Amino acid sequence: MLSGPLDLVVQNAKIVTSEGVYSAEIGVDEGKIVRIAKSIEDSAERTYDAEGRYVFPGAIDGHVHFKLKYFDDVYTADDFYTGTVAAACGGVTTIIDFVTPESLNYVEDFRRRRAEAEPNVVIDYGLHMSVTNFNEEVVKNLETLFRSEGVASVKIFTAYSKRGLMLDDGKIFKLMQLCKKWNVLVLVHAENEYIINSLVDSFVEEGKTEPIYHSWSRPDFVEAEAIQRVGLLASVTGAEILIVHVSSAAGLEKIVDHRSKGVKIHGETCPHYLIFNEEVYRRPDGAKFIMSPPLKKESDRQALWKGLLDGCFSVVGSDHACFDSVRKLSPKRFTEVPGGVAGTEVIPMILFSEGVLKRGMTFRRFVEVTSLNPARVYGLYPAKGQIAVGSDADFYILDPMRKTRLTKENLHSNIDHSIYEDLEVNCNIVATFSRGELIAEKGVFMGERGRGRYLFRSRGVA
Ligand code: URP
Ligand code: ZN
Ligand code: ZN
């Protein structure tokens, strides 16, 4: 039984859940949703008038790279503060970043990463543990992270051997067996390293070093082959896997094939694959669009939209990893351009405008891929991912009547450009609430640095 006034009542809300849209008021106390009713009679410290606009559960971006080391002292442009401010302004109330091992002592690496995030994050966050080696010491460390530190997912790479990130198939197999035992999700960056290297070498030898060759050295079958392989390993080990940043129709087909045979496999795609195709690499500033996997053909883009609308993708994440123009545009060869683009802030706006309004994506699918499914697969449900009594009061208000022109001036990433420059979306994020606190309104961030909390995640036992 509650005593005293509620902290907040949001009035005139059109609440969107995976079950439907309904008009109600939301009562919040101590960071949690405590009432949802047509009319809340309790007194409140504060009211907020949503003016009949949509109130969505806070988006969960399970794939960001803030303050990611690229080489020496070069890092991605957004750190945990600027990155989470951008996320918050776009309606994202939870992010999950990564720990990249610097030793075999993964627990120490994890604690170091948490210490980097903790004083800076403005929204709640979790950490996936990237696994780049597999031996007794790594197993011991991983089990500590799974048991005591709230790590419910690991990330592996089937590429990037030169950066020391790639895990070989034998080690992937063993890691999947371990993850099956602990019911830990395995995220996979799926591209075939050997085919990429042979194509890159040929192009470079022929002097073909413009950005378009980045895409052509990583064609769709590079992704499809790796998904086929890790999907098979998931099927024999029983591990649950999530293929991150799916960029091609062929890759998506492999996910659908595996799933139809009972493999526990999910797919994530990202806003950039839904908006652009490889043609942008021919622009004078084409290198700004370099990320891995690269943008593919227009037919791939269309297939990704179809897959998103049909329920083939479980989640949308941003793979947010951005650099200033000078870093992207000064290298002479595509092989030297740091990979990655900004995207966390645009997920809800792009999916609502291009998905719901333009392509008939249902509200249910929208809520599933932006909030509910990420909460479930990453081990955050039921505290996150829904507007329901007992859940954290994480939500954002979206105005479907106000257009937004995406420009570097009105986006919040710490970079000097936006790949979405001048794209008009038919909606606007009016306000974002995190645990009941209004942290962003009309593009202005108003929360405190370091207010975000580390989320101990759990997917339950296998
Ligand atoms: O090019 C990209 N996507 N860089 C970020 C790291 C990754 O591969 O996810
Ligand atoms: Zn990746
Ligand atoms: Zn990534």
Characteristic terms for this protein:
462 residues; alpha/beta; Urease, subunit C, domain 1; TIM Barrel; 2 domains; 8-stranded parallel beta sheet; 32% helix; globular; binds N-(aminocarbonyl)-beta-alanine; binds zinc ion
Helix content: 25-40%
By CATH, the architecture of the largest domain is named Alpha-Beta Barrel
Poorly predicted tracts of residues: none
The CATH class designation of the largest domain is Alpha Beta
Helix count equals 13
> What amount of the residues lies in strands?
15-25%
Mean pLDDT: 97
Number of E-type strands: 21
Largest sheet: 9 strands, mixed
Ligand set:
N-(aminocarbonyl)-beta-alanine, zinc ion
Protein model, in words:
This protein is α/β, with parallel strands linked by helices and 462 residues long. The protein folds into 2 domains: 6-56 and 386-445, Urease, subunit C, domain 1 (Roll); 59-378, Metal-dependent hydrolases (TIM Barrel, Alpha-Beta Barrel). 32% of the residues lie in helices and 22% in strands. It is built from 13 helices and 21 strands. It has helices at 80-89, 106-117, 136-148, 169-182, 193-205, 212-216, 220-237, 249-260, 271-275, 298-310, 325-329, 347-359, 363-378; strands spanning 8-17, 20-29, 32-37, 47-49, 54-57, 59-61, 69-71, 74-75, 92-99, 124-130, 153-157, 185-189, 241-243, 265-269, 315-316, 395-399, 404-406, 423-425, 428-434, 437-441, 444-445. Strands 1, 2, 3, 4, 5, 16, 19, 20 and 21 form a 9-stranded mixed sheet that branches. An 8-stranded parallel sheet has the order 6-9-10-11-12-13-14-15. Bound molecules: N-(aminocarbonyl)-beta-alanine and zinc ion (2 copies). Residues 65, 189, 291-292, 319, 321, 339-340 line the site of N-(aminocarbonyl)-beta-alanine.
